[in-house]
Write a structure and sequence with these properties.
The chain has 339 residues and is α/β, with parallel strands linked by helices. Helices cover 62% and strands 8% of the residues. The longest helix is centred in the middle third of the chain and has 55 residues.
Amino acid sequence: MRNDPFNTQNNAKLLKEIAFDMKVLFVEDEIEIQEQLKHFLSRFFSRVDTADNGVEALELYNLHTYDLVITDLTMPFMDGIELSANIRSIKDKQHIIVVSAHSESEKLIELINIGVDGFILKPIDIQNSLKMLLKSCQAIYDHKMLHYFNTLLEQTNNELRQSNIELECTLNQLGRLRDEYNLPKEEDYVPFSSDSFTDVPLEDFYAQNDPEELERLNEDLEQIEDDFNLLLVSLDRNTTTNTLMLFNQLLRSYANQIHLIPQCHTLGYALIQISRRIDTVEIEEIESISPIIPMITSLFDHLEQWRRGIFVYQNVDSIHFMDEYLLKKIDEIERLLAN
């Protein structure tokens, strides 16, 4: 079968892409062939070391790390079979390709039992050689990528475990501060009186407002939530006046947007009031109200649930379905600031 120039070119391109940082040990006793093949291999691999026989190759192998070993079969002092066996005794997963003549086929079974990757037959055919190199290097590349992603996954898991530990410590600290400043627990709150707002079914709410205005409002609220979360992950964990003011600016923006909805004036007004109260916090008060950022974060999480229920999922009976709970959260922050 004649060589397919397109396949040869394609295989050469793929081999360059995956083998550019791989190191090769090439063992060949015929110097002319050694030089020709080294020049050919250097087109694809970052480093190609050569040895004239198995003894020299084993010395180099003990000094350096190679992704791939390519060895001739018949050589003086130590042939390719003995070299492959010795290398496999040092590193049982080492990738090895053996170059052999058709007349040496009776020895190939022994090499197969040793576990070499494959064979390149003499006289050397470029297309078949590229196929064999590509097959072996693809396996090397896949193994490296698997190791990389496993390492990355382990690092991520460790970071998550550390984050969970830190979160648990923060929650414990918040609990201690809650007791210290006599803040009520969730179950101790008296529900906010619903007399301050009139129940508005979701269907009526959409009938009373411009759909385009509501869609724009939802987008604006979602953007503020995204800005809040981005700010949350980018800032230092310590609460400072600057940190608090940045969060408060977003809280004020959210409150102003909600206040645009006539049916939500009570909630919007409560958010504006707490924002104004935060504006009065002095630098010396920051340490005593360290739970304020987690509490504002919790408030934003529940505001997002409120927004999604009304504007995204539209699966709630009334637009006030979370007002009592949100107003309790606001009251909790107010109590902290008042102490």
